[in-house]
Amino acid sequence: METTRHFTATVYIVERGAVALHRHGRLGIRIPPGGHVDRDELPHEAGLREVREETGLDAELLDGTDAVDAPAGRKLPRPRHQMLYDINVHDDGTIGHQHIDHVYFARVKSREIDPNGDDEADAAVWDWYDEQDLRESDIDPDTVQFSLEAIEAAERAGE
Fold this sequence. Notes:
Layout: E1 4-15, E2 18-23, E3 30-31, E4 34-36, H1 43-55, E5 60-61, E6 81-89, E7 95-107, E8 126-130, H2 131-135, H3 141-156
Parallel strand pairs: 1-7
Antiparallel strand pairs: 1-2, 1-4, 2-3, 2-8, 5-7, 6-7
């Protein structure tokens, strides 16, 4: 069986030392904004689009990518992490679907979540988590780790 792989982008948004996570209805876990990269998008563009659709917020990527002198090219924001997630694992152990996730960190200027995309989760499923909330939570370990890293990156950037 062939494994289908899709590129995705996830953005951990930070405001005043906290990240926004929502409870995903189908998965039952708390995750940041993110989704599939469309055919005409670059991964960071998809991540920023997903932030706008899911939260209504405009995000500024925390990008530490060095400039490159490339006459026929341009630098792209480097993801903080790239992850491979198994989405559909069959009973026999074969993997039907995976996401190749580009993980970015960003800042936003407000905690007022007002989703503006089609079929987005209601604002009521979103919460802001600071370092203590994250450490005391039952949130998946990768989400906690990336959230804490995003908070630290925002602090270093002078949030």
